[in-house]
Amino acid sequence: MHFLSRSAVFVGIVLARTVIAAPTVLEERSVSPLSASDLSSLAPFTQFARAAYCPTSVLKNWSCGQACSANSDFQVTLVGGDGNGVQIYFVGYSPSQNSIIVAHEGTDPTQFLSDLTDLNILMDPLDTALFPGVSSSVQVHDGFRNEHALTAKTILAEVKRLLSVKSTTTVTTVGHSLGGALAELDALFLTLNLPSTTTIKAVTYGTPRVGNPSFAALIDSKVPNFRRINNKNDIIPIVPGRFLGFQHPHGEVHILSKGNAVSCPGDDDATDAQCQIQSVPNVFVGNILDHLGPYEGISIGTIFCT
Ligand SMILES: *[C@@H]1O[C@H](CO)[C@@H](O)[C@H](O)[C@H]1NC(C)=O
Q: From which residue to which does the signal peptide run (predicted)?
């Protein structure tokens, strides 16, 4: 019975899509493929996002195996969190990227998916003590907001310190899954709290929707250098649903297969079949295993800290 009702929903959606899909042929906006060098330039950030799943004991001396050795010149200066009450995070300086890096750990995908498909998800305004000047019409998932607030001030203080002692003006936030949502919030938070001479970038992986369309518009305007990388048929990037008032900002990169990824235009409204909302129109047709990667050969998650 359960299966039948799912099938009925699925068939309904397929029919609806067929009807809706026809006019998109005439759409002007199109995807652009990433070049091989653009794709490989993401690998160091993928490894930072992966490293954030490693225990703090090995992050402190940057000995977390492949994820650390892939960025062997990284100077880690702050490690925090416990992976339980507070997601693990680290801050440091990467000479080869000429950037300060802020990375956040993600969480168990299956539990995360069930949390994000909960129809009672709350959205709340950002705390203006952390996000000065942001309108109360800008709203985000309250769980993400609260988790971000736990580490925000500590991270800001360390980033300020590093900006004063390292010869860089660039800060890059990274994370996968819940860590991607935290990195998205950190990118806005750091932009609003650091001098305008600072360049803030964000590279996130398998990121859920974080806030409402006003939040997405704010990221678009304040964090132009934002990339959220989705792998194949991962479900997490399509939750919480748009019908609940959530919307991604710009910056989608969709990995279709190894060596083959496209940059998708717009804010979560792509009409090209290669973009996430078209290839995974609903949670029943996605694959949660794609959440773990591989992102261009690199898998991310607790079991991939080796
Ligand atoms: C790093 O710290 C871990 C945990 O304390 C320890 O086992 C390891 O030997 C250390 N590695 C180096 C290279 O110092």
A: 1-16
Report yes or no on 122 lying in a domain: yes
- Domain contains 24: no
Direct distance between the N- and C-terminal alpha carbons of the chain, in angstroms, rounded to an integer: 43
Dist. CA 305 → ligand 1 center (Å): 15
In a domain, 82, yes or no: yes
202-219 tens-digit pLDDT:
999 999 999 999 999 999
Q: How many domains, in total, are found in the chain?
A: 1
Structure tokens at 104: 């956040």
Q: How far apart are CA 241 and CA 243, in angstroms?
A: 5
Q: Residue 27 above 50 pLDDT? A: no
Q: Domain with 58 in it: what CATH number? A: 3.40.50.1820
Parallel, antiparallel or unpaired: strands 226-231 and 199-205: parallel
Ligand 1 site, residue 69, Cβ cutoff 6 A? no
Quick one: tokens of 219? 């990221």
In one letter, which amino acid is 260? N
- Domain containing 154: what range? 2-14+30-304
CA of 6 to the centre of ligand 1 (A): 50
What's the token pair of residue 253? Answer: 């990169």
55: Cβ–Cβ under 8 A, 6 or more apart, which residues? Answer: 64, 83, 88, 305
Q: Whose CA is nearest to atom 7 of ligand 1?
A: 58
Q: What is the DSSP letter of 207?
A: P
Torsion of CA 283, 288, 290, 291, to 10 degrees: 100
pTM (2 decimals)? 0.90
Please list the helix, strand and coil fractions of the chain in percent, rounded to the nearest 5, in that order: 40, 20, 40
